[in-house]
Structure formats: C-alpha cells, structure tokens
Design goal:
- The chain has 26 helices and 37 strands.
- The protein is α+β, with helices and mostly antiparallel strands.
- The strands form eight sheets. The protein has an eight-stranded mixed β-sheet with strand order 25-24-23-22-28-27-26-29, with helices on one face. Strands 4-3-2-1-5-6 form a six-stranded mixed β-sheet, with helices on both faces.
- A hairpin with a 2-residue loop joins β8 and β9.
- It starts with 7 loop residues before the first helix and ends with a helix.
Amino acid sequence: MADIKIDGKLFQERINHFVNAWKSDKRAGDGVFGGVSSILIMMGKVGENIEFQKNNAMHFWLLGYEFPTTLMLFTTDTLYIVTTAKKAKHLEPLKGGRFPIEILVRGKDAAVNEKQFIKITDIINSAGKKIGVLTKDKSNGPFVDEWKKVYGDKCKDIEEVDISAALSTAAFSVKDETELRAMRAASKACAALMTPFFLDQMSDVLDQEKQVKHSTLADKVDRKLDDEKWWKSVELPNKQRLPSDFDPSSLDWYLGPAVQSGGKYDLKLQADATNDNLHPGVIIAGMGLRYKSYCSCIARTYLVDPNKTQESTYKLLYAVHNLVLKEIRDGVVAKDVYNKALGHIRSRKPEMEKHFLKNVGAGIGIESKDPTLVLSAKNTRTLKDGMTLCITTGFTDIENPSPKDKLSKTYSLVLTDTIRVTNSDPVVFTGDAPTDLDATSFFFKDDEEMQPTPKKEKKDSRVGAVATKNITSTRLRSERTAQVDEDQEKRRREHQKELAQKKQREGLARFAESTSGQDSAEVKKFKKFESYKRDNQMPLKVKNLEILVDQKNHTLVLPVMGRPVPFHIHTIKNASKNDEGEWSYLRINFLSPGQGVGRKDDQPFEDASAQFVRSLTFRSRDGDRYEEIAAQIFSMKKEATKKEQEKKDMEDVVEQDKLIEIRNRRPPVMDNVFIRPAMEGKRVPGKVEIHQNGIRYQSPLNTQQRVDVLFSNIRHLFFQPCAHELIVIIHLHLKDPIIIGNKKKTKDVQFYREATDIQFDETGNRKRKYRHGDEDEFEQEQEDRRHRAELDRQFKSFADKIAEAGKNEGVEVDMPLRELGFNGVPFRSNVTIQPTTDCLIQITEPPFMVITLEDIEIAHLERVQFGLKNFDLVFVFKDFTRPPAHINTIPVESLEEVKEWLDSSDIPYTEGPLNLNWPTIMKTVTADPHQFFVDGGWSFLQNESDDEDVEEEEEESNFEIDESELEEASESSEDDSDFDSNASEEASEEGSDEEDEGEDWDELEKKAKRKDREGGLEEEDRNRNNKKRRH
C-alpha cells in the first residue's frame, strides 16, 4: 500500500454531500434513511473472489481504495474509523477538514482493541436507538467476529435498519463528473472490444468456416485487455479513438467475456464460456469492464442467416430496447419504464411476453448491479439526472419454427447498453457499437437460396426487353407537360383575382394618406468629417508648408495662402499628376454637391448659399515627389472606401448573446460534419453540439474556430435528405446576419456530410472472395443505399433534437418537397429549387437561396410567350426597400406547376411577355407607396392580352415606363428567345390592327420578292462603290 494517495478534497466533498442528504432526510420525515442516528460500515477480510457489495462501494466512493479489516461509524457530526496502524497512516492526512474524523488505531493488545470497540458501541448508544447496517453484508474474519461479540453485549436495545437503499440514493446512484468520466472510458473500452475486435474475430471464424470454441474466442478477447499497443491504435466504429489519457492498466474484468451460441444461452452472462464450437446461428456476446473502480457492461446479439421469424423477433427487441431508452429520463418511476416495455410487447406480439426478462436493467457504477435500483414491475424508485444504468432487454428460450439443425431449435436474444439519465434523452455510453438489424445480421448463403424466383411480368407486345412502366401514352415530353387543364386554369384565374383585390386593399390600408414620398424616403444628410480636434494634433512637418499625407488620421494637409489646411480623405474625389515642360502639376479634385453624377450624388446641400472648392492645383519641378503624393492619396482613398464599405456591410450584423453551455452532462453531438460558409484553414470535418440556448460548431483544428448560433436567431431550420443529392444537409436560415471566421457575413449556416464518401465496407463475408462482375456492383449499390438511409436517419434525428431544444423560440424542422421542385438560375448556376411548408429554397449549392413565403408581396412571371423555351420568375417583397428576387431560365414545362404552387400558397402572381426594369419600378413604388396603390397598385403587371381587363387597367393605372427602358427590356427578352424576331413583329402588327383585313399569301409573296430584289440592287451598288474607292 505504499503508492496509495487519497484525494482529501474529493473525500470532504463526498462525505459532506452524504451527511447533508442524511440531515435533509431527517427534516423531511426520514423517508430514505429510516430515522437512523448512526451508520455502521464493516469491512472484514478480503477473500480470493472479490464481490463488490455496498460496504466495498462505500470505501471506493469515499477513499478511492478498499481498506480491509476496517470499521466505519458515521454520525451526523463525526466519522469514526477503527483500523490497523499501516492503514491509519494513509488516513491521517484526511484529518483537519470541514467534516471531523477520529481514527482509532488497533494494535496487538487484545484488551486495548476491545476498549476501542466498546467506545464505538457507546457512541452508537448515545447517538440514538436506530443504527443503519447492511443486512446482506457477508464480511467475515477474526476482526468481524470480535466486533460482533462486543456489539451483541453492549447494543442489545439498538434497532437495526437496512441502509442499502439510502446509500444508493445519497451516495452511489447519482454520479459526479469524475465518476461519469471513468464510466465513459469503461464504456468506450467495452465498445472497442465488442466492435471491432470481437466482431472481426467472429466474422473471420464464420467466413472461413473454422471450428472454434466459445472459450477460445473469449480468451482472445480476454488477452486484449493487456495489449497496450492495441488500445492506443484501436478505432471505434464512429472513426474516433479512445481518450489520450486512457490508461489500459486501470481496466479489469467484472463480467465475462461471454460467448454463447447453439441453443445454450444464459442472459445473465455469468457462466464461463463453454468448450462448444461457435454455431452459425444466433450468437450472443457480452462483457463487463471496470475502469478505476467504475463498471460498464455491453451485450450484443448477432444473427447469422436468420429466417424471417428471427428477424421479426429481433426487430421487436430492437424496438423495445429503443422504447426503454426513450422513456428513461429525470423524474420517471422505475416500474413505469418496465411496464411501458411490457405494454409494447403485448400490443405487438402478446405471445412473446412469457419470454421477456423480469426487468430491463439496474443501476451500475462502483457496484456492477445496484439491487435497490432494478427496473422491474414493482420498484417505485424515481430516476434522477446523473444516474447511470445498465439497460438489458431480452427474450429467452424462443422456439424456432424453421430450424436449420438440431442446435437451432431454440434461441435467445439480448441487448445491453450502459447509459446515463438526463432531463431528456439518455446518453448511451456504449452506443458506438451498433444494434440495428443491418449491423448485426450476416448472410453467408448463396443468393439463389435466399431469394425466391420473382414472378414474371406481362410484357407489352410493342416492345422487347423494355420495361412496360417506361411506356407512355405520348411521344414527346412537351406533349405531356404543356397540356393545360382549362377548369383548373379558370379556378386559378378566379382565385388570383381575389388575391389581387385583397392585396390592393391591404396596400391601401398599410400606406395611409399621411405617407408621403418625403417621409418614406431616407433623408440624406450632409456628411461632416473631422481630422484634428486641436491644432497641436497636426503633424510637426506642417511647419514646412508642404503637401503632407497623414496616413494615421486619413488626412491630406495642403498649403493654402501660407497656412496648412487639412482635408479629410472623404472630401477628396481623386488626384492626378501631369507634366508640362519642366513643370509638374498636381491636381486635387474635391467632392462637392451638384456635380451631376446622377444616382451616386449623395452630397446634399446644407446651405444653399454656401460655396465649395472644386479643385486645387499645385506646381513643382520635383515630378517624382508629386508622383509619390498622388500614389499615396490613391492608396489612402482606396483604403478609406474599403473601410466605409465594410462598415456599411456590418450595419445589420447583430451581436448575439453568449451561448450557455451544458456543463453537467454531455450535450447532444453530431460528429464528422462540414460547415458552409467554410471556415479559414484546412477543410476538415468538425462537430455540432446542442447547448441550452443554441448550437455550436467546433473545428478540430483550433478551439477558437467555432460558430455559435442561438435559437433566438434561427428563423428557419431545414433538413434535406441525400435522396437524389450528393450531400445530406441541416440548414439554418437566420433572422440577423452573423460573422463566421474573420469577416464572412452570412444569414445562412449549413452543416452537411457527403453521402458518397464510404470509407469502409461493412459487407465482411466470404462471398467477396469468390464473386465477380455484377454481384459486387449490386452489393455496392445495396451498401450505398443503406449508407444513405443511415445518414438521413442521423441528420433527421439531430434536426429534431435541435427543434426540441429550441421549441421555446419557435424552431421547427422543415423539409423540401422535391416533387414540387423545378429548375432555375437564381444566381449563377442552374439548380433545383424546392418549396417547403414556409419557404422556397435552394440549399444544395452556394450561394444559397431562402425566400420566406410570408415576406412575398407579389410574384411576376416574365417572358411568358409562345415559342420561348423558358421563363423567369420575380418575387417582390413586402419590404419595398429590399431588391426583388429573380429566378431565371425556368423551363416552360414547369410553368403550370409553378403557377399551381403559387396559387396554392396564396401568393398573387401576374405574367407578361417581357423583362421589366425592376430597379426603376421599385424606385417609383418607394417614392410614394400610398399614391402607387391609389393608382391601381400592381394591376399594371396584368397581361395586356387579357381582353376583359385591358381598358380597365389603362384607366386605373397611371404607371408609365420610359420607352428606352421598354426597348432595353425587349432587347434582353429577344436575346434569350429562340423565336424569330421578324415573326414576332408581324404577329404584333397583326394583333394591333384587328379591324384591317389581312393580305392573302399571293400578295405577301409578291412583297417579299420585291424587297429581295431591292435589297439585291442596293448590295450591287455598294459593291461598285467599294471597287471605285480601291481604284
């Protein structure tokens, strides 16, 4: 015991916690401790087969070590310890703490030793009439016998009360962070031994059809416990390694390892592994490890070539196991968990109830099984946050209706995990070893045996090997998609009229009479800049009366009339240097109002009578000096403009509150995900954590490289599965922009993982060695499909957890509806745009597009005319200062679907043949919104081809567009069109003169020939003139 070092601080924390719980129970009515006044913990001689009971656990919990032949007596104010001299040396440093300790050292004098026991009995008698003891204590030895003799003589009137439940409640069941860390390490070690080590060994035996005994396999697992190199290099199924401070020497077995197959099963896993050979049927493997005195247990069932009944039974067990895990949380009564599982079995397969275990687990920690915390049908203990449980669900002795051989007639199934209770879903410490049917099933039979012959489909007589489902009633795609349902179109038209009228009423109500153009527009102010507050702040070189560039204060100091005059860089437009003869001229132009620069003229007049200096010109023979000054002015102007732009960009960035981290338990985490916008540095996957008021993305490269998003700043949460895509996505659209990295401003944060990046092969069986051709490809397709489904499940589950954690802030998961999607170009590339319940999104490729439907004022379909292959869609927002959103080049085949979606979403839409100049339109709207709606609002967008509404629209709307703008819009439309422009002009001419009679074909042909003849003569004249010029 020379290396023993007891943590005095931890000892004081735990004993004070225990005694305070004891005192609180006394005040509350002695419901837990039973009214005891003292507690006796007796530790006798340690035998060869160490069994951890409550007395051992109390030693480990308080001291970290086991002290044999030691007596502990607890009262509410002192701890008395009777032990030998060697042990007393290690306990002496504990004296002097907040909770007093008295140590009685035993020697070789029997009389002195007896007096010490008598002193302990006197303290028991003086403390009260009840003493807490461990009634199932199996301590023995001379030390225990001597104590029992003295105790029997001196404490005849003392009532003994079993204190087991109180020790569990006040000391062992709820773990602190130190204990949880040890249990996590033990659980990861269990998972590593199960998957990959045992799984690989078992797969190798089955793959090569070896005859290997259960005991041989168990011995291989046992020997790995001492292989330190293996522990340092082992990789868990989630690609993580064990913690860097993991100490393999602190590991020890407390259960197993157990390997069972061939119809002989003991789900307690306490029997030694037999010498029977491993049977390829139902294989159960389980083990329990102790790390730094804390236990963890795991068990898995593996199915080899299972039949449908076995698969169905395992699926039931898997569902029950997950149901138990889902039900466990803070405040739940133990018996309710078991009854919930039993009720699920009765509703699904009542015949399996008799095979179900009598409990679904128990408490675990220092004790491998806490008998006071068994999850059975009668236990009324309440689960608390911080408890750790060993959850075991299983069915025993099930009859196999179609056994392969005599060893497969009966089988059992079991799943065991070590978990931690929280306020929500539990943390599964051993969750790294998968339990789903796909991960635990192995198929070694040939495909011909496994798959029945499929029924032949009747083939169409028109085709040979082509599948009949690919035959359509039309020949061309355009014939299928361009057909318009007249009734549907009529219904849409009526609904759109109602929406347009409603939008007009809302606009008039929203912008009242008092809203004028001057009030609604932002009033520009005359900008003032200050270079120096006092004269003494000017550089010393100004005394030389020379041109001076002050980079520090962003100022140019110029000599004017014998005085240094400072000009801030924001007042300077530009500077230029010219040479004329031996003289060089430096011209400095200043910004001043009324320079006629159009829209960019943001320099208003403050005083109409004020005069401004437009420019200053200086002359010198030193041309190089002026060249340097001009360059410095240009550089300073460029830097000032850049800073001004950055400041303008950051105006809408809101500083978020601090993220409140979860400290008392491990937060929900999803590893190996990438973030967009990408962070600086190397592209590596990080992890996303859910905390109390938001989520955090942490890069593995640097602890400072992280992104925090609060639930209060999340406007939309999207989950996009990897079906038809290369990535699976969780996307956050924010209310206010945040900064990612140094200077990346964004309103969209995305977490994704690539669906096609399969770095490992889970189909580890012997067929891979003998297969050639399509079988490998088919197997790879199945693997890819399963991998994608697992990715979708993980991301959907994590998105639901985010929504659950942020439900107080109204965070909900939304998914895109791919069947309503259409192709378009919102920015640069052609992408698939998909509606959701509340939005229209494109989150597959950056830049992302998220348009909230409730923000939309109206939608307008542009370039909708016969002959064009595509059209454009423009969204005008209720916030008229926000630029309209454009989605260009949408295939015309999607026109009806887009209209139907807009109509079903109650979004008013219009359509027209041309592209409109939206900046000019919105400038007119924002100048005086009230007058805009008085003049008819958005009615000017209605298609002029609608004969019923043409005259009415012309009377109601005074909105006009310049002819030049219409020509530009028309030219842009014609550039995008494949339709002949001449044909379009002729069609418009014919449509405008409805009263004139049309010319017949003969007259049209004569005119065309006449034009061709005239054109040919003109061309001949031009050729003659060119020849004359050359001569």
